[in-house]
Write a structure and sequence with these properties.
Layout (H helix, E strand, L loop, with lengths): L24 H13 L4 H10 L3 H16 L1 H11 L7 H15 L5 H14 L6 H12 L2 H10 L5 H10 L4 H7 L7 E4 L6 H10 L4 E13 L5 E13 L16 E3 L7 H15 L10 E7 L5 H11 L22 E8 L2 H13 L4 H7 L3 E7 L20 E7 L14 H4 L2 H18 L3 E11 L8 H10 L3 E4 L9 E2 L4 E3 L10 E8 L3
Parallel strand pairs: 5-6, 5-8, 6-7, 8-9
Antiparallel strand pairs: 1-3, 1-4, 2-3, 9-13, 10-13, 11-12, 12-13
């Protein structure tokens, strides 16, 4: 999944520059927040911040930064209500908001929060603002519970996004907007090719790490060999930790036994894998079918979590493996002997991230060849709006190559704001339209490369309907050979949409906001 990194349209911000990490903890957090407001992502600035600090300061800095981001827009409104005159300097606004977080959310002692924040204003060379900083923080310190309630009363989102969520999710609006300002739980995906979820939970118990098993059921209808629809169900199990834990504390994490992955994200690989198995089973009765090779695509694959999950399922020695598709007549319907897996993403650093993740999980091409010579993996740096398998750049047409496509589409990532609270600063209203056009371009390019009978799973981590169900409705309108595969009432996750299902970050599983739509290609 690719996340856009559009900087906010604010002409009061200075041009982006190299992040300077010196000074007090609060100064470093302020500079990090300024970098984010200049368009840098949290993921790109968090490690430089933490790596610049002594171990004893890292926890406070992390909490101060993340909490300030989560409450950013609510704090901004509170600041405006407290100041007699508009506070236009972004450095001053940021410094005051960092001070407010300490008083309202982190329970830092009044004298320490006020004194250190005033000193921080001096360190960033805005000494002229110290009187204002001091006055506002002292006013809040006199009655923090009053101002905390005022801050918590409404959402902490940009107004344009809050308005759009009100339009899309009126019934869930209040719970949703409050939920987006809370931390998200940490989930683990257990490598089923190595161990079971239950056994890994026992290993966590031994390491004094508490975790609950979360099980999600998915049901959908697929075409069978007779041409009618058959309901199929699958179960996806993951682990939800009671408290977030450093990965180096997780048993055998370095050996690839488990991965950090949101629970709702863990639905993707099992769904497309199950759909592909249904396709292969439906083809068993076709006596003219002599193809024993299948080809699958993971588009926009970085950082590789869903790709790794799919490879784990393929490699597992159980009913989830494509090599274990039952054959009614082995003499006339050959078993699968070769699986080609292609993964693409458009940025070289992100491609490297895929390789690193697969390496840890023992799923690199070398590992797959040693374990099973029938799986071939090819990772390509390419633009999904133009890339065509096996074609040169000047090719005018693309050909059906793939039996299944997992499209983890670029999106505004509004469904993962709990994990990436910088999104509410970086995104703009214009990004929705631009992202929807990008999604449409990718869909239109990849769809012709899917074989008749093949499946495409469309996934986003957005909670905006324009990127999700409305995107699918538009696609279906322009593609007569696209059939929507219906999710059934057996699904224990998400909200049924006109096409597909939408998970919100307030679901019982506590997962992030994800959208899923499953399409099958038919002969026109």
């Amino acid at each position: 999944m690719r996340q856009n990194s559009t900087a906010p349209r604010n002409n009061k911000l200075k041009p982006s520059s190299n992040l300077i990490m010196n000074g007090s903890v609060r100064v470093r957090v302020i500079r990090t927040l300024l970098a984010i407001q200049n368009g840098q992502s949290l993921s790109s600035v968090l490690d430089p911040l933490l790596n610049s600090l002594h171990d004893g300061d890292k926890g406070f800095a992390h909490a101060l930064l993340l909490t300030t981001l989560r409450q950013w827009h609510a704090l901004a409104r509170l600041l405006d209500s407290l100041a007699d005159n508009p506070v236009d300097e972004v450095e001053v606004r940021t410094t005051i908001q960092v001070g407010l977080v300490q008083l309202l959310y982190l329970e830092v002692a009044d004298h320490a929060a006020i004194h250190e924040t005033v000193e921080a204003a001096k360190e960033i060379e805005f000494a002229h603002s110290t009187g204002l900083v001091n006055a506002i923080l002292r006013k809040v310190a006199k009655n923090p519970s009053k101002f905390r309630k005022k801050c918590d009363k409404k959402h902490s989102l940009p107004n344009w996004l809050a308005y759009q969520l009100k339009q899309d999710w009126s019934e869930q609006y209040d719970e949703l907007t409050q939920g987006l300002r809370q931390p998200a739980p940490m989930f683990l995906r257990v490598n089923s090719a190595v161990t079971s979820v239950e056994d890994y939970q026992h290993a966590l118990d031994g390491a004094e790490i508490d975790a609950d098993i979360v099980e999600l059921t998915t049901g959908f209808k697929v075409a069978n060999s007779s041409g009618s629809a058959t309901s199929t169900t699958l179960s996806t199990k993951g682990l939800r930790l009671h408290q977030s834990t450093a990965v180096n504390a997780l048993p055998d994490f370095a050996l690839g036994t488990a991965s950090v992955q949101d629970m709702h994200a863990q639905l993707a690989a099992p769904i497309i894998n199950k759909a592909l198995m249904a396709k292969l089973s439906a083809e068993e009765s076709d006596t003219e079918n002599t193809n024993n090779e299948i080809h699958i695509l993971d588009a926009c694959a970085a950082p590789g979590g869903k790709l790794a999950h799919w490879l784990e399922l393929i490699s597992a020695n159980d009913e989830s493996s494509l090599f274990h598709v039952k054959q009614d007549d082995a003499e006339t319907s050959p078993a699968i002997t070769d699986i080609k897996v292609t993964a693409i993403d458009n940025e070289a650093p992100r491609i490297e991230r895929i390789r690193e993740n697969l390496q840890r999980l023992n799923l690199s091409q070398h590992d797959l060849q040693q374990a099973n010579n029938s799986i071939a993996l090819n990772i390509v740096c390419a633009d999904a709006t133009r890339w065509q398998h096996g074609k040169n750049k000047k090719a005018a047409t693309n050909e059906p190559v793939f039996d299944a496509i997992l499209l983890d589409s670029p999106c505004t990532a509004t469904g993962v704001i709990r994990r990436h609270p910088d999104i509410s600063i970086l995104r703009t209203e214009e990004d929705i339209e631009q992202t929807a056009l990008l999604q449409a371009d990718i869909l239109h390019n990849l769809w012709p490369q899917l074989k008749v009978g093949g499946y495409l799973l469309y996934v986003t981590c957005s909670i905006l309907k324009q990127e999700n169900v409305e995107q699918m409705q538009d696609f279906i309108t322009h593609h007569n050979d696209a059939v929507v595969i219906e999710f059934t009432d057996d699904c224990s996750w998400g909200i049924e949409q006109a096409i597909g299902r939408q998970c919100l970050p307030i679901d019982s599983a506590s997962g992030d906001g994800f959208y899923y739509a499953l399409l099958q290609k038919t002969a026109e």
